[in-house]
Automatic annotation (TrEMBL):
The keyword Lyase does not apply. It comes from the Bacteria. Pfam families: Thioredoxin_4. Residues 48-182 form the Thioredoxin-like fold domain. This is Thioredoxin-like fold domain-containing protein. InterPro entries: Thioredoxin-like_fold, Thioredoxin-like_sf. Coiled coil: none annotated. Keywords: Signal.
Length: 234
């Protein structure tokens, strides 16, 4: 979703769901016209050569559409997903939703936090305000044998972490959610987040990741020296 705008969300979700599979993507760097910059700030985590970076809003329909595709690609390629919260101000409950996800991640388990995010995306149509989110989260925690804390973020540290993600997004000029970027040590390829419906297509994630992994593997393999021809002299 474009920052502070509700326009064209339905059209974007429909376009990405009906769009034919794009021509085999390459990992050649970011197109110059996408409006994003400072992408060198985004790096794979330690121990990984490639990562899928996602800036998302829990209330964004296009994010909900892309979410299962991201998970499928990560599972198939063993490439990690780095999620950054980018709650849009006009979505009155998504800032708190991001705080809830951070609470589960920090206080319970990262795996359970990933499950919470998936379930929030699936339940988007039933969450219209903060009260709806409160009920959803309380019931969700009960189903997972957890209690809803009386105050989820008493010192504001979770909200600060969410704001940190948002500020990083602003530094690279994120305007749309989801913004999805495949990154390696020294290259970045935007998959979604340009605002161009003919380019933004989450189904391209797999081909871009495959190209990035192949490129990283080839770079890690030292070239074999050419064998010298034997002399014909005895």
């Amino acid at each position: 979703m474009k920052l502070f705008s509700f326009l064209k969300i339905g059209a974007l979700a429909l376009a990405t769901s009906l769009m034919p599979l794009a021509v085999q993507a390459q990992f050649a760097g970011t197109p110059p016209s996408n409006g994003l910059h400072n992408l060198s700030l985004l790096k794979p985590p330690a121990g990984s050569k490639v990562a899928i970076v996602v800036f998302e809003d829990l209330g964004c329909p296009a994010c909900a559409h892309a979410h299962p595709i991201e998970l499928q690609v990560a599972a198939a390629t063993h490439v990690p997903i780095l999620r950054f919260d980018f709650p849009i101000e006009a979505h009155i409950w998504t800032q708190q939703g991001a705080v809830c996800a951070r609470y589960i991640q920090n206080k319970i388990s990262p795996k359970l936090a990933d499950e919470y995010r998936s379930d929030v995306f699936a339940a988007q149509n039933s969450i219209a305000n903060r009260d709806d989110l409160q009920r959803f989260t309380e019931n969700w925690l009960q189903r997972h044998n957890q209690r809803m804390p009386f105050v989820m973020d008493p010192d504001g540290s979770l909200a600060n972490a969410v704001r940190g993600d948002f500020e990083l997004g602003r530094r690279i000029n994120v305007e749309y959610t989801p913004t999805i970027i495949v990154v390696s040590k020294d290259k970045q390829q935007v998959v979604c987040g340009t605002g161009n419906n003919s380019y933004d297509d989450p189904t391209r994630i797999r081909s871009v990741v495959d190209a990035a992994v192949s490129q990283a593997r080839n770079a890690a393999t030292p070239a074999q020296p050419a064998k010298q021809a034997k002399s014909g002299r005895s």
